[in-house]
Design goal:
The structure is a homodimer of 138-residue chains. In chain A, 34% of the residues lie in helices and 21% in strands. Chain A has five helices and six strands; from the N terminus they run H-H-E-H-H-E-E-E-E-E-H. In chain A, the strands form two sheets. In chain A, strands 1-3-2 form a three-stranded antiparallel sheet. A three-stranded mixed sheet of chain A has the order 5-4-6. The model of chain A has no long low-confidence stretch (mean pLDDT 93). Chain B binds a DNA duplex (30 and 30 nucleotides) through helix 4. Chains A, B: Pfam families: FUR.
Chain lengths: 138, 138
Amino acid sequence: MSDLLERLRGRGWRMTAQRRVVAEVLDGDHVHLTADEVHARAADKLPEISRATVYNTLGELVSLGEILEVSTDHRAKRYDPNAHRPHHHLVCARCGAIRDVHPTGNPLTSLPDSERFGFTVEGVEVTYRGVCPSCAAA
Amino acid sequence: MSDLLERLRGRGWRMTAQRRVVAEVLDGDHVHLTADEVHARAADKLPEISRATVYNTLGELVSLGEILEVSTDHRAKRYDPNAHRPHHHLVCARCGAIRDVHPTGNPLTSLPDSERFGFTVEGVEVTYRGVCPSCAAA
DNA sequence: TCCTACAATGGACTCTGTCTAAGTCAAGTA
DNA sequence: TACTTGACTTAGACAGAGTCCATTGTAGGA
């Protein structure tokens, strides 16, 4: 956390109250907030923060590789502070809850050359879908 | 194709000119059109078709399991008529070209119980990202 | 042919996200 | 500490994708 702020400052990132609260909101495991949710939480601490600033800051954190953009549904993008350990996502089809997961093996190797159509394959995203325990109980 | 129309009629789907042209537009391999593209192509054959009708029809075809919704970028959803053979997608990071691919193995088995958080896992989507031959050459 | 329930229409509306012009301020300099 | 400047923030307009709804049209059964 303050690690994050230190790293950013070290990279010459100009520190402002707005950027600090956005970075603070994005902390923890299994955190996957939409831009609007980030804005709402940031506004709790800094009421006058604008939507544009939140979007700008999120965009910069993504460019810096400090957070990841995730889109598990077909709606708003979500932002995942867990950018330093590779992982995939498990999503509840009913409530949208998201967990970070670490499958075994390397999914990249499962795509044979004959299925690559001449592409240079650089990455892979895996999204597991199912029903979470709370929704299954309900 | 007319298979599709036959199947739909057999399910009691009321056939209209609009539904027919939407179904006709969605035919072929490696077809991944946005709703707007479907609308544009449908309008070539039936100029007065409305956007709302295209959205309604696409939504119904998805519910019926005849086409798949795909979102490989964070923009518009795309519709994939290849719903009857399981497959995943390979996407060019530069131009957005999409190919249907068939990885080896079953990606579902790569998620150990300890990483399932009590979820009932039902499906998995895999999106490979890379650079297509034309973009690599350019 | 007539009826009626279902489908299509178009326009307003919502939700996400981007852009811009003007004002503000962090941090380096003296 | 005060000054300066370019980067940051703001509010609001704008744009793209998709949904909703009241009205109009029509497929297909009687």
